[in-house]
Design goal:
- This protein has 131 residues and is an all-alpha fold.
- The protein has a single domain, classed as Tetratricopeptide repeat domain (Serine Threonine Protein Phosphatase 5, Tetratricopeptide repeat).
- The chain is built from seven helices and no strands.
- Helix 3 packs parallel to helix 5 and helix 6 packs antiparallel against helix 7.
- It is globular, with a radius of gyration of 18 Å.
Length: 131
């Protein structure tokens, strides 16, 4: 995205102009934030990528792509437990792209094999102490 190039050159008005134009090219704003977030991630601009992933999740909290992006951002920032949590969300989605599910499960497994994270324990029902 051209807006990112201008943003890196600290030309904020020009970058905002190009971001506004780019956003209009997407049929839904969700796609814009995911795409821009992926570019930020590729360029090592993790805080901006995280912000765009969260913006995408505000638009659609059930977006597998947004959760997957956020998981990758957290992994790049070495926030491994948060990354695993996001990948587990994608893994549990029934309507997600099967490729994202497989990759999320793979990434979860690899991160756990490295000993960087523990699986999220299943939620147990509280037991009553009454007799």
């Amino acid at each position: 995205m051209l807006g990112i190039t201008y943003e890196e050159k600290e030309m904020s008005l020009t970058s905002q102009f190009h971001f506004t134009r780019a956003k209009k090219l997407y049929p839904h704003p969700l796609g814009f934030y995911i795409q821009r977030g992926m570019i930020y991630l590729q360029r090592g601009m993790f805080n901006k990528a995280e912000k765009d992933a969260n913006q995408a999740l505000e638009i659609d909290s059930k977006s597998a792509q947004a959760h997957f992006l956020l998981g990758n951002v957290y992994e790049a920032q070495n926030k491994i437990p948060l990354a695993v949590a996001e990948f587990q969300i994608v893994s549990g989605m029934k309507n997600a792209d099967p490729k994202l599910i497989v990759i999320s499960r793979y990434k979860t497994g690899m991160l756990m094999l490295q000993g960087a994270a523990r699986p999220t324990p299943p939620q147990e029902k509280p037991t009553s102490t009454r007799k």
